[in-house]
Amino acid sequence: MTASLAALASSLPLQAGLFASQSGQLLVTLVAVAIIIIVGKFVLKLAWRLVTIGIVLVAAFFVLSTIGVI
After folding, report:
1. How far is Cα 62 from Cα 51, in angstroms, rounded to an integer?
2. Any domain includes 25
């Protein structure tokens, strides 16, 4: 029953004619781009945090090694 339910769920947009018109294709494309941008925003936020932490750690190591502590 799950396979038939999955087949029904995947064929609903095609039956609705969402991809039949250019405006439907444009809508699907814009929604996909919006999802990619939202996910990318969170990934870049994490990347900036990691880069900032790396800069602080390397700067601390540089200062400590310049002073002669390490």
Report:
1. 16
2. yes
5 within some domain: no
What sign has the CA pseudo-torsion 45, 50, 51, 53?
positive
Would you state the structure tokens that stand for residue 22, as one six-digit string?
């250019």
CA distances from 13 to 10, 30, 47, 66 (A): 7, 16, 36, 64
Number of structural domains the chain divides into = 1
Dihedral pair phi/psi, residue 23, rounded to 5°: -70, -35
pLDDT reported for residue 69: 86
- Whole-number Cα distances in Å, 1 to 9, 12, 18: 12, 17, 26
pLDDT digit string, tens, across residues 5-52 = 555 555 555 556 777 888 889 999 999 999 999 999 999 999 999 999
pTM value surpassing 0.70: no
